[in-house]
Specification:
Layout: E1 8-14, E2 31-32, E3 35-36, H1 37-47, E4 53-57, H2 61-67, E5 74-78, H3 85-92, E6 103-108, H4 116-128, E7 133-139, E8 147-151, E9 157-161, H5 168-171, E10 175-177, E11 180-184, H6 185-192, H7 208-215, E12 220-224, H8 237-250
Parallel strand pairs: 1-4, 1-6, 4-5, 7-12
Antiparallel strand pairs: 2-3, 6-11, 7-10, 7-11, 8-9, 8-10
Length: 260
């Protein structure tokens, strides 16, 4: 059982360069629907009730700061070495020291199709099940490249397995991890310190945290709440253009160059 606090904050991972995007901008600064892609993640968090959004920045971090200048409730911490997603979260821990801590969203800054209602459902299920961690997953036709959600014979969460570490049987799983997490904050930071780098990338993965929590006897809940369309990743200019069109359509915004 995990004691719940109605407070919700967010840690948003925004340190990557995005080498396949072209140019030398930080990945999350590339624009989608007229705004830096990370803006849409911050917006969804705020609409879902997040009081603070702590952005973990790295490559040309000053440009990420500039992109969100004037946004209330946004703070920044530096990740000077790219040692993985769990390391990024660990860099955010000092921002929570000595402050009230309840639940914490952990999200990727390069997922602008994120919806506030998905996050709201995530936190609602998280609190209703009194979980230490809750994952919002998605079932997609082509899961290539995504971490797979492994369940036990009773359908309960067992682990997240990254593609490069997956067996042939696990690669066939279509339920994937789009990196929508809600953690009980105190449990999150306790668990981060237990994560190792024994994997194909030799990195510290936040994806290991839910499995560790379950091993430690904590409740981990999984909810299939992310629409497949929202899982689209942005790793190159073509994918950026596709996501831009989807978000503009969702927001009833004209496409660049379209006739009024």
């Amino acid at each position: 059982m995990t004691e719940q606090n109605p407070r919700i904050d967010a840690i948003i991972m925004a340190a990557g360069k995005g080498t396949r995007m072209g140019g030398d901008l930080p990945k999350v600064v590339h624009e989608v629907a007229g705004k830096p892609m990370v803006y849409w993640v911050v917006k969804a968090c705020k609409e879902a009730g997040a009081q603070r959004c702590v952005l973990v920045i790295g490559y040309k971090g000053e440009l990420v700061r500039e992109a969100l200048a004037g946004e209330s409730g946004v703070e920044f911490v530096e990740q000077t070495e790219q040692l993985g997603t769990a390391h990024a979260v660990q860099m955010a821990e000092p921002a929570f020291e000595g402050k009230p801590i309840g639940d914490v969203f952990v999200l990727a800054g390069d997922g602008p199709l994120i919806r506030a209602q998905t996050l709201s459902r995530l936190v609602e299920v998280h609190r209703r099940t009194n979980a230490a961690a809750t994952l919002a997953t998605s079932i997609i036709d082509d899961p290539t490249g995504y971490g797979r959600i492994v369940r036990d014979k009773d359908g309960h969460f067992e682990a997240i397995v990254e593609q490069k570490d997956a067996t042939e049987e696990q690669l066939a799983i279509q339920e994937v991890n789009p990196s929508y997490y809600c953690f009980a904050g105190t449990q999150l930071f306790k668990t981060i310190d237990q994560i190792g780098a024994n994997n194909a990338q030799s990195e510290y993965y936040i994806t290991d945290a839910p499995g560790l929590l379950k091993t430690n006897g904590q409740t981990v809940t999984v909810v299939d709440a992310v629409p497949p369309e929202d899982v689209l990743s942005i790793n190159n200019p073509d994918q950026l253009a596709t996501v831009d069109l989807i978000l503009r359509d969702r927001l009833n915004m004209p496409t660049p160059g379209a006739q009024a």
